[in-house]
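Hi C.,

You asked whether I'd gotten around to modeling the 143-residue construct. I have! Everything is below, sequence then structure, no commentary in between.
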Amino acid sequence: MLEDLNELFYTYDDKGIITYVNKKLVEVLGYEIEEVLGNPVWELVPRCSRNAVREEVGKRLREGYKGIYLIKLLHKDGRELVVREKAAPIRKDGCIIGEMVLCEDITEQCRARKLLKGKNESLLRIREELTTANQQLGGLFVI
């Protein structure tokens, strides 16, 4: 069932070592399963974020809380993908033994949002220029 998810899914143990990945994760990130299993989860993120991710994972494993995060994952070819990550502890006999994570790739949504923001800023500048020009013309046009 986990293999058929349309989202990226993985688990790691109480030391942050990846213990399971579904097909979608390796498909989207470009790795082979063997390249990911047995490695620390923070190796999936860009170098500049690894310490922060290592600390956050450690805190979540100690305290056992669920969380939703926006995070960048690293494709095998070096590209950064933006994912919405939902993480929850895995418990056995009341003890936290790891964490499970479900991710949605929102890279394209973020790109589209950034592009739209740029277009909106351009339109606002044009509107301001037209308003100024209209005022200089004595308000002949309604904007």
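If it helps when you're writing up: The first helix runs from residue 23 to 29.

Thanks,
B.
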